Fold:
Amino acid sequence: MDAATLWERYQHWLYYHEELNLYVDVSRMGFDTEWVDRMKPKFDKAFRDMAALESGAVANPDENRMVGHYWLRDPDLAPTPEIKDEITDTLEQIEAFVAKVHTGKISPPNADRFTDILSIGIGGSALGPEFVADALAPQDAPLDIHFIDNTDPAGIDRVLHRLKDRLDRTLVIVISKSGGTPETRNGMLEVQHAFAQRHLDFAKQAVAITGVDSKLDRIAKTEGWITTFPMADWVGGRTSELSSVGLPAAALQGIDIRAFLAGAKTMDAATRIPDIATNPAALLALSWYYAGNGKGEKDMVILPYKDSLLLFSRYLQQLVMESLGKEKDLDGNPVYQGIAVYGNKGSTDQHAYVQQLREGIPNFFATFIEVLEDRQGDSPDIDPSITAGDYLSGFIQGTRQALFENNRASITITVPRVDPHTVGALIALYERAVGLYASLVNVNAYHQPGVEAGKKAAAAVLELQKKAIDALHTAGRPMTLDDLAREIDRPEDIETIYKILRHLHANRRGITLVGNPGRPKSLQVSIV
Structure:
């Protein structure tokens, strides 16, 4: 394709939103007009599906749940007055609480002000708040934020070590819709233990964000925590950043949550237009479908050229992969759908995996995130009339061109700056694109049976651990793994039993393994 034709194609497929000053360029994807025309019936259905979703249709029949994250930024769209009031009341409660924390009206027992936030959650209750904190928290934030987002003891220790001199001034936010998420529960119990060791009253420094009358809600109210904020059952974890999950921590850091919500609302309006060429989310979904033949045959590589957007690819991993990675379609047919997502940041990737992107396996399409504003304030010249930001801009344009020259497809999203309004718009853009694409490939984007299967399997392992330990106590003598597995009637799980005991032995948990570790069947197991 010659330069003149490419320029015409760029102009034809370029989307621009004047209010947001946001561009979506899909000209480097290889589809033609005829193919797009053939896709229109699928998109007509997808637009209808999204309209039904926003009107309150049950999108998750196995749980009888609506999916209403769009109502969070435009409560007037809520299907009932009760839901509208729930949204507006919760937002007002968040803002009132944050104002009291900032002024010191709500303070810890042993200090005048809170100085830090410790957010405990996992998945959607962690990835969104982490991304937004990294992207938007001001340098002089009123409170610094820290995260426990795993059940890794060493990771928890690192976070608590950073807070050890300020734990008495740390506001703890525990986020779990059900109140029973194991990783979040474990993090909470570890932090409560740390508070007790320092003779601090955890309840006087704790906030719960959870479902109404959940187990966590009842604990918080019984123990007298500072407050609770409700999580609606119609907001899924991976679309919850603009709900009570993400807004309290953002506001406490000094991030303008009204601008955050306004950016998402503006993008929502833009992505409701039932026309492919003038709907930025439809252009993304169209490009994803083309790249992977509607079967996810190519990975999505996210390359934000801004340090503050480093975690965007990690945030999108959950949004895209948990929403679209499904074994069966809505009709119950095996389809094995999904799009793998990975990425880092530019221009770091010039020196990392861009070499493979240009010359290796062509199993991906790239999405460049370009930010027009280099920094607040003027930039010094690095070379005559050239700034560091000019180099960054050159790298993104050069890499895009280098990939295209070698027949590697790419999308470019350009935003004016990284601020709450823009980040809200980006989140909304991808939420809608995921919803449209899910309709195109006929899967349910709003349930996650594979995640639930993993939770059940983990619970089964812990139950097996209990049985093995009880059997060893009862036996009162060393046993081989074979003997132990037979004793608890689980010979098919001998490998799992071995790994459980190896873990307990390594952590000095009262289990002794004697024998050759390289030959597990030779081991003798006993209780210390």
